[in-house]
Automatic annotation (TrEMBL):
<dbReference type="InterPro" id="IPR036249">
    <property type="entry name" value="Thioredoxin-like_sf"/>
</dbReference>
<dbReference type="InterPro" id="IPR001853">
    <property type="entry name" value="DSBA-like_thioredoxin_dom"/>
</dbReference>
<feature type="domain" description="DSBA-like thioredoxin">
    <location>
        <begin position="10"/>
        <end position="210"/>
    </location>
</feature>
<protein>
    <submittedName>
        <fullName>DsbA family oxidoreductase</fullName>
    </submittedName>
</protein>
<dbReference type="Pfam" id="PF01323">
    <property type="entry name" value="DSBA"/>
</dbReference>
<dbReference type="GO" id="GO:0016491">
    <property type="term" value="F:oxidoreductase activity"/>
</dbReference>
Amino acid sequence: MVEQAGSQVVIEVWADLGCPWCYVGKHRLRAAIAQRPDADRFTIVMRSFELDPEAPHELERNEESFIRAHGGTAADVLRAERQMQAMARREGLKYSLDRLNANTFDLHRVVQYANDQGRGFQFFSDVQDGFFAGTLNPFDPEALAGVAESAGLDARRVREILASNEYADRVRADRREGLELGATGVPFVVLDRRVAAPGAQKVAVYAQLLEQVAGPVPSERVS
């Protein structure tokens, strides 16, 4: 069974800021949607999934963050990072090796607010792109407020949220729901609540999944 022609399709994306596969997978999903002439049928909703809820709120170097969470050595991290950098660059994405990490819970709280305004995916994408490009410190409240304003959000509200505990329950609920749906990591994409795609799939695979839930790419009408 596929969606009726022209009906809206909701795509939910569970992701975390510092996850490189989320960064790559997000762009692949967006590319697959953009290939379709009915791209406006698809709405992407960001869902929160902290990969490391126990991460410190203080900034730490990328290799320190990885080793603390997964073990290994700095050489292991650098080797893996260089592989990811090469792959990202092949796909036209910027990828800085000089990144700082910290707890992402506060960012996810702002993402929840952005979702309420219909701009969750755009906001998260802008923040993550700047983070991996090495041009943005997303753990700086003022930097985050600036990105939010550029995405059409209220920077004042973002500052209020960051100074409070608003949306905390929703961030935790998102992670629980992702786990209940089968997520063992991120990215985890759920299309129309009927098809799940764990991991960063190729553009062609996302295209097949879009066709599965929304039907074949419609033919362009000749006027």
